[in-house]
Amino acid sequence: MIRCEGLSREYQSGGQPLTVLKNITLSVEAGAFLAIVGPSGSGKTTLLGLLAGLDQPTRGHVMLDGVRLDTLTEDGRARLRGERVGFVFQSFQLVPTLTAIENVLVPLELRGRSDPDRARQLLASVGLGGREQHYPAQLSGGEQQRVALARAFVNTPGILFADEPTGNLDAATGATIIALMRELNEAHGTTLVLVTHDQDLARQARRTVHLADGEIVSDSAA
Amino acid sequence: MNVGFILRMARRDTRSGARRLALLAAGVTAGVAALVAINGFTSNLRDSIASQARQLLGADLSFEARAPLPGLARTALDSIGGTESEVTSFSAMAYAGGSETARLTQMSAVTGGWPFYGAIETTPAGAWSQLQLGRHVIVDPSLLSSLGVQVGDSISVGATRLEVIGTIAAVPGDVGVRNAFGPRAFMRGADLDATGLLGFGARVEHAVLVQLPPGADAQSIAEKWRLRLRDLRVRIRTVADDQARLDNALTRLSNFLALVALVALLLGGLGVASAVHVHIRGKLPSVAMLRCLGATSGQMVGVYLVQAGLLALIGSLAGAAIGLLVQKALPALLGDFVPVDVAFHPSWSAAAVGTVMGLWVAIAFALLPLLEVRRVPPLAALRQDVSARPGRDWWRLGTLAALGLTILLLSIWQSRSVRTGIVFALAALVVLALLRLTALLLMAVARRLAPALPFAARQGILNLRRPSNQTSTVILAIGFGAFLLATVLLVQHTLLRTLDVSSPSSGNANMVFFDIQPSQLAGTDSMLRAAGVVAAPPVAIVPMRIASVRGIPVSTLQADTLREGRWALRREYRSTWRDTMVASEKLVAGHWWSGPAGDTTRISVEEDVAGELGVSVGDGIVWDVQGSRIPSVVASIRSVDWARFEPNFFVVFQPGALEEAPHTWVVLARVPRPESRGLLSRQIAERYPNITSLDLTLIQGAIASLLGKVTLAIRFMALFSLITGLVVLVGAIATSRFQRVREAALLRTLGASRGQLTAVALAEYAALGAVSALAALLLGGIAAWSLSHWIFQVPFSVPVGAAVILVAATALVTMVVGLWTALDVARQTPLGVLRGMLE
How far is residue A5's CA from residue B598's CA, in Å, rounded to a whole number? Predict the structure, then answer.
């Protein structure tokens, strides 16, 4: 499903090259639940961004669902994401001017489709039935993240990337979100790639990759 | 590209912050209103001129000359075979038996049935038909009031007395400002000889107006005779000529005003750019997330472009509606310059064009900040520390070029001239750049001073530098309007001051007596002396024409149609003789004469005329002085300051050659008291009816009122720029509201009172307004000085009081508008703000 080879990413920092990822090779099968863990600054989010095609590596390449990302333009990668990828962010990233249901519908509408019934059904499945017309500001953090989850699954993506999805939530709400993600992962057979520094959360994954200083230090299955 | 998504997102995104976005739309409203109003008025004006063209002349055709028409003109008129009417125009002093003054009056003596088209309206109605029935006169109401007489009384004009049978209400074809230089009066041609005023030296305009027989074509008759009669100094006017000339002159005026209006629109564009910039900055996280979810950069630009376009359309439509209302008011403002009644009808084409222009300008200006959306990396949704993709952005360069082209094309279009358009666009850019530079300097000074100021003032000034502030845009927008107002104010003041003969300190002459016959000179002098008036030495005036230049007869020179300056060959010169130069003259080439005259008569020629005639020092000119030939040699070339109320001449002769030629005298005098001026003119008119006395303070007043009307029109259009500036200010405050509310909450948490918060805001807007106005005044001063120095060539002066008022008023308006907009900031409770519970 996802494969990367010799992946490196350097940034310029104060005129000096700063290597954030070093020669990462990794492959994730379809339907897997992978957690990427490590301390702050270990390169977790950078790796997630590269795997999702949000950024381009300095060296190496990524194959996403059989497509080599470096052969696509920025807009080409955007289209690929729109069709096959879902996202959940630490800070929820809902559009503040859209209602809950409108936020959920965005990925479909980007592709010229609309399916309010499915959106309503998804919102109900994350426990937000009846809250469709609420704006993000009218929802709590946990509720906003549930809307984000519904949005992530609305176009039945093959892959779901989640960046610290419980980072802004309290422990109980975080656990609910993770349970929901697992449920959806199992129900839809979606490949789940999760970045976190929460060890409890990582334990729920079927496979855990540890990063430190931009390198994989361990790769273990549960 | 998914159009449905773009439209849906644009609509949904407009739901919140609608008030803020409305200001984006309002940015172009004032500019569109100004353009629609002036362009609509111009179109109304054209229509009115076309429909009333024949009434402008009152006839189909007219033959005009400074002397009674020559035989050939008579032959021409006979061959046309239409109905003729004669109008003889001249200036004369009018006074009444009991009046203590005499007024210089623009007389027209009418024989026959003119006007053939349109009607001269009188009070009481129908007086015009009585004009030919006796020694009657119909006058402007202002003459009656200044002479203290009423309809039914008699007035003296020259050697005759005429009964006033009515006053003039409207004369087709006359502009309202015309009677500023002296009231008009109509008498019958039959009484002309009895006035005794058409003697030597009188300036008389003879016109024969013709109503053509059916089927005759005025234009072809004019073409047939024009060239042959031109050499005899007879001009032929037709309705079409008048219409074209008028169209031309008025279009130039409206095009100029339209450019002033365009400034307002372009400033609005600047406001739109700044509002979009702030709006987009707030949207960047959403954009990054949507890019993660698969939105293309084109889709994202599309969403915000559609949004800006829709809002700009609303703003432009509102502007067009306001513009139509303003258009209705413009005839009151400009009507005095227009010889036709401008009938109002809403100009839908002007409204449509204005709307499109508003939309175009808004989008052109919005595009630049919108392009930022393209450069948002999707990674920004995950990490805050990623910046926009680097590298040269061709889109940005292209947009910049399109923006420049937009400004240039609109300028060219509105001025209807490529050259004027380019000059205007460049000038506007230079002014904007200088305004910004000046503002930056003033801001730097203010920041230097800030630490020494009390808390509120210091905080207010520092607030102007808050992150993503729009201080520059606001200063540009307000400053440009204030700059226009300052320039107009300073130029008007400078011009009026130059013409000032009324102030006691000026010491200039304030009365002129014309057309004094040699035999009347001693008598006039003794009358002036008896009145205790000090007069300058009299100046002789000898009318003459050019017979030949450098041995080539004028007729030969005129036949050369490619030759420039033919007016200088044709015109009648009113020359003088004297042995010294006067203060308003400067020698450019050659030498002034000294000692007795030799065999050849030496002359000094004004530099522009010398250029037109193509003569230099040493060249010979032969003059035709009332039939006798006087040869002369150019001894010097002079420059002349025409702006002064002094008798100045194109050609000055060395004494000795002209004294025997027929001539009249001019005397200048200073008579301090207005009632003495009136009485003196009355006494002289009674004794010597042919002498014209001119009260220069009245002329000065006339010019002042004329200038006042012109500048009022310009100021009116400039006001739209200032309004746009204030809208931009309101927009800037609204877009930074969130930030302001947080700052205020923080300060309140730290113990600031509402009064202190208000004082901080007050200081901020006062500084903003003062910096804008000061920069505008500085630049306006430079512009006005340049205009005074290079164009009008008069000494520049600053009305200190008015300048201070302008700066203070701009600062005050900025302060009031700013405070009013930001009023609710201080009302938020600190806790609510800090918990992020903003509505």
Answer: 110
CA atoms within 13 A on the CB side of B774: 15
Q: Report the sign of the C-alpha dihedral through residues B816, B821, B822, B827, in that order.
A: positive
Q: Give which of B478, B476, B439, B458 is closest to B764, Cα–Cα.
A: B458
| Chain-centre distance for alpha carbon B167 | 31
User: What residues in B contact A55, CB-CB < 8 Å?
Assistant: 377-379, 386
Question: Is there a contact between B293 and A81 if contact means CB atoms under 8 Å apart?
Answer: yes
| Chain B residues near residue A110 by CB distance under 8 angstroms | 2, 5, 290, 293-295, 299
> Using a CB-CB distance cutoff of 8 angstroms, which residues of chain A are in contact with residue B291?
78
- How far is the CA of A182 from the CAs of A65, A160, A190, B237, B556, in angstroms? 21, 11, 9, 95, 107
How confident is the prediction along chain A (222 residues), in pLDDT tens digits per residue?
Answer: 899 999 999 887 777 888 889 999 999 998 899 999 998 888 888 899 899 888 889 999 999 988 999 998 888 888 888 888 888 888 888 888 888 998 998 888 888 888 999 999 989 988 898 999 998 888 988 899 889 989 988 888 889 999 888 888 888 888 888 888 888 778 888 899 999 888 888 888 889 999 999 999 999 887
pLDDT tens-digit series, residues B372-411: 888 888 888 877 766 666 666 788 888 889 888 988 998 8
- DSSP, collapsed to helix, strand or coil, labels residue B261 as helix
In this complex, do A81 and B292 lie within 8 Å of one another by their Cβ atoms?
yes
As a whole number of angstroms, the distance between CA B122 and CA A66 comes to 95
Determine the pLDDT at residue B191: 92
Q: Does B295 contact A151 at a Cβ distance shorter than 8 Å?
A: no
For chain A, how many helices (H) and strands (E)? 7, 10
Name the residue with tokens 């005779």: B225
| Contact call for B289 and A93, based on CB within 8 A | yes
Determine the angle formed by the axes of helices B239-292 and B297-334, rounding to 10 degrees: 150
Provide CB contacts within 8 A for A3, sequence distance 6+: A26, A27, A28, A62, A63
User: Distance (Å, rounded) from C-alpha B425 to C-alpha B415?
Assistant: 11
Please indicate, yes or no, whether the overall pTM of this predicted structure exceeds 0.80.
no
Lookup: tokens for B425? 């666009």
Element containing residue B57 per DSSP (H, E): helix B29-57
ipTM confidence: 0.80
B22 burial type by CB count under 10 A (0-12 exposed, 13-18 middle, 19+ buried): middle
The shortest C-alpha distance from B280 to chain A (Å) reads 13
Pinpoint the alpha helices (H) of B690-836.
696-735, 737-749, 754-786, 800-821, 830-834
